[in-house]
């Protein structure tokens, strides 16, 4: 997702845009820009072997990004949360809507009080096996500076309406809207709690991995490592910021090798009627000290 998620974590910002009954509830424990086109940044490209990581500066790249995300969460892991956040993801209409949501997030990136973009979209490219001399997008990631302190980053919330228009996704369908509210609140609860605890400290912000996916055809080639390493270097450049993420069942091992420490498994507190849905295993992780 993190990673993992494409739309689901579009936090509320405190900065200005520059261009988302107890008896009937169950607790389910589950284990998982930069600059806009006219701006530039140092170290926007890192290379390792045949993998190149770059900051996205072309909205057309989100078509490929959504395709990769769909392969990972819609097909490979059959993630009920992601699919609910992207209704019709496997139809032309749903795909178009999903891409549009990603582009909108890209277009409305905000800056912190140091002038740094609060959200960075990355792509990882490799040589195209079907077309000699060309490259293809094989991985995608979103890094976000988050904070409860004004001007220090996007302010996260457990309220899903800060990340998505539920009525637009499910007009009049209160059941599906309730499912998303419960899943979203459960998924980000530890992230929000951590930032609330850091709010009054000397370093109130985190540089968090919001999403990291690799096309199944290119997995296990070190691509995820490069997308994560890029963000960790950027976190250091921004003032030794701590990083957090919600690691999937596969992703957590990559993150742990790169310095993330396990904190707590995500527990989905959802109504009993949703218990048969396949919710994603995720582990909240952070690079700082774990109590």
Automatic annotation (TrEMBL):
Q: Which residues form the N-acetyltransferase domain?
A: 209-281
Question: Coiled-coil annotation: which residues?
Answer: none
The record's listing under InterPro entries reads: Acyl_CoA_acyltransferase (IPR016181), GNAT_dom (IPR000182), Trichothecene_AcTrans (IPR052523)
GO molecular function, one example?
acyltransferase activity, transferring groups other than amino-acyl groups
Name-wise, this protein is N-acetyltransferase domain-containing protein
């Amino acid at each position: 997702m993190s990673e993992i998620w494409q739309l689901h974590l579009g936090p509320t910002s405190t900065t200005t845009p520059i261009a988302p009954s107890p008896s009937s509830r169950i607790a389910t424990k589950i284990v998982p820009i930069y600059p806009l086109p006219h701006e530039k940044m140092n170290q926007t490209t890192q290379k390792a072997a045949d993998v190149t990581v770059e900051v996205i500066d072309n909205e057309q790249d989100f078509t490929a990004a959504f395709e990769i995300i769909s392969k990972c969460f819609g097909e490979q892991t059959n993630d009920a949360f992601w699919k609910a956040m992207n209704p019709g993801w496997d139809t032309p209409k749903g795909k178009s809507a999903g891409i549009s949501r990603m582009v909108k997030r890209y277009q409305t990136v905000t800056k912190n009080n140091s002038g740094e973009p609060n959200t960075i979209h990355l792509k990882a490219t490799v040589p195209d096996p079907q077309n000699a001399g060309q490259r293809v997008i094989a991985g995608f990631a979103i890094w976000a500076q988050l904070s409860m302190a004004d001007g220090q980053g996007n302010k996260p919330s457990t309220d899903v309406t800060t990340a998505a228009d539920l009525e637009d996704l499910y007009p009049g369908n209160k059941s599906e809207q309730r499912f998303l509210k419960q899943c979203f609140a459960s998924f980000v609860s530890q992230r929000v709690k951590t930032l609330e605890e850091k709010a009054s400290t000397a370093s109130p912000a985190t540089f968090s991995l919001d999403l990291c996916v690799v096309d199944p055809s290119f997995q296990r080639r070190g691509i995820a490592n490069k997308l994560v390493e890029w963000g960790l270097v950027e976190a250091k450049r921004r003032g030794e910021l701590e990083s957090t993420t919600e690691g999937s069942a596969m992703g957590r091992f990559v993150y742990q090798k790169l310095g993330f420490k396990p904190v707590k498994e995500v527990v989905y507190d959802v109504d009993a009627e949703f218990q048969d849905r396949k919710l994603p295993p995720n582990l909240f992780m952070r690079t700082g000290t774990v109590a």
